[in-house]
Structures are given as structure tokens and as C-alpha cells.
Amino acid sequence: xxxxxxENRPSRRPYVNYVLMMVNVAVFLIFLLGGTLFTxxxxxxxxxxxxxxxxxxxxxxxxxxxxxxxxxxxxxxxxLWIFGDNVExxxxxxxxxxxxxxxxxxxxWVHILSTLLSIxxxxxxxxxxxxxxxSVGASGAISAVLGAYLFLYPHAKIKTLxxxxxxxxxxxxxxxxxxxxxxxxxxxMGFVSLTGLSSGxxxxxxxxxxxxxxxxxxxxxxxxxxxxxxxPAERPVRPFVASWARTPLIDTIVETDRVTVMAExxxxxxxxxxxxxSEWEVLIRAEHGEIRFRGGATLPVPVSPRVRELxxxxxxxxxxxxxxx
Length: 325
What we know:
alpha+beta, Rhomboid-like fold, Immunoglobulin-like, 2 domains, four-stranded antiparallel sheet
């Protein structure tokens, strides 16, 4: 499976996310084209052996912007592109940058501590090659972004390209399942890595970053940024008199915690209108003289049947319903 994009558009441009991506790409190209990529990994990568001695602590920061190869870079930037914009939209630019950098630091420390644990769990006790292997990449910080996204937008759909033998198809997968299975895989492989079967991937950095992201959102009670509802401009409506019941034009706008329903009912008054709501449907009826309206709509998400903020103005009825999350 290959994620392509999420169907949850941010309300403002993620400038910090753009800068982080550009810096990662620029650093990689500078070292790659200069023929010093291998040297850069050893110099700027976070090596547990030195960190635990209190040496080269600055590499905990620089390692977040170094990547081992083009596929390593492309995979990390794809996930940052898909999930980072909405998290930045929620936190704000400055707080998102701080959250991202701290997530990378936490992830690096969890990876370093996992190498210490491997001293007792590996087949050859006290022989751990990862202690002197530099870790590089933005995946720890990006994992923090994924953890935050899971708590903030669990029902957001991820457009995914799925390969099954010779069949290629596109599916929309809720973030809860996509990121949930992603984390489960990291957790399984993390415990496998403690046995000494190293794959060259710092799974515990991913685990640490992901858990950090979820904890920050939960402890700080971070809520998704509410998107502005676009209400159509008011305009006078000339009633069309008919002796039969007509179907009103009904539209819905889905937000994070509520659903706004609008319907055109020209020629009636507010006391003529009756609204019936169930968990998945809304039915609107109105009758004034020879003018009759009757129609319903199926809601895209489940709602509480209690009608709130009902307004009828210039022939347009609007009201809100609270989503059931």
C-alpha cells in the first residue's frame, strides 16, 4: 500500500511543513552531489555509543535532517507531506515546529535506550552493533506527527494506492485503521529487533515518536482547528405557488463536531416548518396555504437528533446537528 494524500484539507497553508521538507531535501542533495553523504552520516548521525558518553550531543538534532538514500528521503517526505499540514493547522506554525523538533529528540532517545536494552536481549549478550551505528532520518519526528494526527483526525480518509498481484486500485482508508496498523507493525518489529535481528530500521524511534505525539495531544487537550462554514449569501426569493408538494433543495456541510443543514423553502414562515431528525436522516416539511414542501436527505455522518440554531431567513432554512464521534 502506498498513501497518496488525505481527504482532509487544512484551513491555512502549512509553511513550516514546506520549509522542513525543503531543508531535508536540500541537505540530502548537498551531501549527495558533493560525494560526502557517507561521511555526513557518520559525522552528523546520532551514534548511541557517543551520546551515552555525553559526547556529540548536537547530533541528536542534526541527525533529523540527514537521510541514507533517496528512498529513505522520499518515504519520509511523503508521510510528512500527507500528515504534517493538518497537524500544523491545528498547532499553529511556531508550536508545530517546536512539537516536531522535540518529537525527533524524544524518538532518538527512545532508540538509544532500546540499544541498551538489547545488551541483555540479543543472542550474544553485551555485543550490540547498533551502539556504534549512527541513526539518521526524520522518521522519528514524522512519527510524532502521525501520532498526533491519529488522535486529532481518526476518521479522516487516506487515499491509498493498493497493489494486489497484478491488480492496482485506489481505496480510502480511515486514519484510525491506517495509522493503527502502521504503529502495530512498528511495535512488532521493534520487539523483534531486540532479539538481535536488526533490519537497519530504528523501529523504537518510530514507536517513541508516535507515542510522544499522542501524549502531547492528549495531555494538552489539543483540539482540531474548526473550519469556517461557508454560508451562501442572502438573496430574496420569489415564491412559486403550486398546489402539490415540492421537494426542497437540501444541502449539508460536515465539520469536525457538527453538521450544518440548509434548505430552500420560499414562501413559508418559520412556524410552518417542521423538522424531524434521526441518527442518519433529516426530514423537512412545510405548508403555507397552497405552498407545500416535503423532502428528506441522508446524512453522511451520524448525528444527535436534537436540532440547534434553527434560523429561517429570506426563504432559506438552516440549522445545526451535533456529530456522534
